[in-house]
Amino acid sequence: MNLKPLLIDQPGSKSSAWIRSAWMFLLASLLCCGVMSWAAGFSSGAWDSVWKYRDVFWKGWGLTIVISVLSLLLSTLIGIVAALARRSCILPLRSAALLYIDVVRGTPLLVLILFLYYVVADGIGLQDRFVAGILILSLFGGAYLAEIIRSGIEAIPASQLESARAIGFTPWQTYRHVIIPQALRQILPPLAGQFASLIKDSSLLSIIAIGEFTLAAQQVNSATYRTLESYLPLALGYLVLTLPISLFSKSLEQRLRFET
Amino acid sequence: MKLKVHSVTKSFVSGGEQRRVLDQLSLEVDFPHVLALLGPSGGGKSTLLRIIAGLERPDSGSVTLDGEVAPLGKGEITLRDYRRSLGVVFQAFNLFPHMTALRNVMLPLIVVHGLTEEDALSRGLEVMERLGMADHGLKFPSQLSGGQRQRVAIARALASKPRFLLFDEPTSALDPEMTAEVLALIAELKETGTPMLLVTHEMGFARKVADQVAFLAKGRVLEQGSSAEFFSNPTSVEAQRFLAKVLAY
């Protein structure tokens, strides 16, 4: 029997979708079984002590979702404004956007959180760590989104803008009917990636004692000394949030596809 | 159509060097249907078309259409209104790839010219029908041949009932068969009465279809007249050389 089609497949070929799915499924199952059997090897009742803290997990996970959704919305807004400012003909505006984007993208998120929370938020009297956390995460995500949005806008061929001008579209009509629909298709994959990153990055907010998912898992761990039982649900909890985003983006990409 | 171009100058800076593309170009021409702009590459034909279309502002000079001065030095909003009254067809079609052919035709009618969805639909269908594209309205540009795309682009320009149609090398991106197809269509459009300005390299077509031709080289009009006259009896040395070259084969 020829095993080659089961093992070798050129990237980009459309022929063997089911073989690829089968491999994904097989490897994912192996991973699950491995982890499960390892976990089962621990003394019975190991999960019981963690199970008592399930409410802590749920609350943390819920808070992570709330933080992610809110900073996702806010960072999109910031990203759009910064991308437009970055392309503005008003020089101070453009410079400010450039400065913001470069400074934020050049700083580790952890450092940004520490600095903005303990120095800036404290300085302006912002006490609420939940609000501060969302603002910091949005500022961080906004800088990356701004660059993604800008790249999408700039990928539109000049001939399209010329056509829009000849027809007599206003700048807003050009954005509405020509730039946004085409740019959106271009940037969908990096956009989804950025949204998934934002969810994962929210875990760093545990450093300023926001009771989100990661901090919850840490608390359970320090109360039970059960590392695997504390951190395995943590990893799965994030995957449950990020995997659907990447699947959704893939299907959307297929649906919105057009050729130029 | 009375087209008057008065002393238009336009320079571009490229590679730190200023290049004068149009050099105090003047042209006064009265033509019923089609004016063809001919001449060697880099002679300023497309730049002149783009200035007349309101897509480019001249450094100095003016353009007058039927006695009405084009607001080329005015603000963007005034200039936009002027552009809306014209129809431009580009070499590379420039259709919007994310919408169907029919939608490409309808969108300017709805967004720019204030037609209702129903009115735009019936006008769009009518124009597509007239250009032989009735069966292709629901296809996307990527599903159409080059000739069909150019027909849609012409339909889009025509649908808003412009007072003047401008073609910027409409067949340069097409193979010979499709070129013939599109040229036949443009010749047919003569009957609709909308005056047309055509930048083209198709000499046979210009000779047959254009009423008047203007020969541009080095940023100036070196010669102008009826197409029969120009092709049988060019007076300037440049035009003679140009025609000898392009008609050699």
Summed over residues and divided by their number, the pLDDT of chain B gives a mean of 92
CATH names the topology of chain A as MetI-like fold
> What CATH architecture of the largest domain in chain B do you see?
3-Layer(aba) Sandwich
| Number of structural domains of chain A | 1
Element pattern of chain B in H and E: EEEHEEHEHHHEHEHEEHH
Stretches of chain B where pLDDT is under 50 for at least 5 consecutive residues are none
CATH topology name of the largest domain in chain B: Rossmann fold
- Tell me roughly what share of residues is in helical segments of chain B: 25-40%
Radius of gyration of chain B: 18 Å
Q: What class, by secondary structure content of chain A? A: mainly alpha
Low-confidence stretches of chain A: none
Strand content of chain A: under 5%
Task: Produce a short descriptive summary.
With 260 residues, chain A is an all-alpha fold. Chain A contains 11 helices and no strands. In chain B, 37% of the residues lie in helices and 27% in strands.
Please tell me about this protein's structure.
- The complex is a heterodimer of chains A (260) and B (249).
- With 260 residues, chain A is mainly α.
- Chain A has a single domain, classed as MetI-like fold (Orthogonal Bundle).
- Chain A contains 11 helices and no strands.
- Chain A is flat and about 75 Å long.
- The model of chain A has no long low-confidence stretch (mean pLDDT 88).
- Chain B has 249 residues and is of the alpha/beta class.
- Chain B contains 9 helices and 10 strands.
- Chain B has helices at residues 45-52, 76-84, 101-111, 117-130, 146-159, 176-189, 203-209, 227-232, 237-246, and strands at residues 2-14, 17-30, 34-38, 60-65, 68-69, 86-89, 164-168, 196-199, 212-217, 220-226.
- In chain B, helix 3 runs parallel beside helix 5, helix 4 crosses helix 5 and helix 5 (146-159) packs parallel to helix 6 (176-189).
- The two termini of chain B are 34 Å apart.
- Classes of the chains: A mainly alpha (260), B alpha/beta (249).
- The A-B interface holds A 159-160, 162-163, 165-170, 173, 177-178, 181-182, 185, 258-260 and B 53, 55, 80-81, 83-84, 86, 88, 90, 92, 94-98, 107-108, 111-112, 140, 142, 156.
